Amino acid sequence: MRIILLGAPGAGKGTQAQFITSALSIPQISTGDMLRAAVKAGTELGKQVENVMNSGGLVTDEIIIALVKERITQPDCANGFLFDGFPRTIPQAQAMVDAGIDIDRVIEIRVDDEEIVSRLSGRRVHPDSGRVYHISHNPPKVEGKDDVTGEDLVQREDDQESTVRKRLAVYHEQTQPLVSFYQSMEKLGGGLQFISIDGQDDVQNIRQQLSEVLTK
Ligand code: AP5
Ligand code: ZN
Questions:
Q1: Would you state the pLDDT for residue 215?
Q2: What is this structure's pTM?
Q3: Domains of the chain
Q4: Is 56 in the pocket of ligand 1 (CB under 6 A)?
Q5: Which of 3, 93, 124, 204 has its CA 20 to 30 A from that of 191?
């Protein structure tokens, strides 16, 4: 199955992606995680994107489309994949259509802006795996440590409140139009299903709702 998780920064895409990908045995393709790995490794790509990521802007469509097209040719994508944080502009979505990459489900996770600011201020991440926690809503077993490796958790560079507000503005302007893009595509009857769920519920309830819509 090919799935897109659509939602504002902090909506819970990465959190829910962990459950879906293990239930369906498909890889999570998070463009954010891929770019952060490039920044950490100090590659040419990392150097190109670091400033724009830290300021809360979007990396260019050309870079992102090339990165994703290359990633989905890898063998682990043969039975599908889950896009997390991609596409986030109309040109990115159109590039998939033009390349004949059909999507089965687009799932929008809706969360209010104020709730997002509070979630992101408490977020902690394990940089190497991309595993995500929240100091009170989804705490690790041992404070400040990753559940699997026991390594230190960190705060993301772009989770300061002013940067979060910029990311939200960018989301509303550039990514939210994808909701009507995919709703129109659903009406064309090619098999794509658009589903919108309320993301204000707790992590387990959202996980339950997602597992119901994905087994239909
Ligand atoms: P990216 O990494 O994609 O960040 P994002 O979309 O801003 O999303 P986040 O990772 O912040 O949020 P999330 O929805 O995954 O939430 P999470 O599960 O962590 O992108 C980063 C940057 O890379 C972009 O700004 C851009 O510069 C660049 N980039 C990436 N892709 C790009 C693209 N396609 N085009 C151009 N540029 C691109 O949850 C958040 C917190 O809330 C956690 O602490 C979690 O524990 C907690 N939480 C989750 N669910 C709940 C719940 N139900 N209740 C309470 N707390 C919850
Ligand atoms: Zn994420």
A1: 81
A2: 0.95
A3: 2-214 (3.40.50.300)
A4: yes
A5: 204
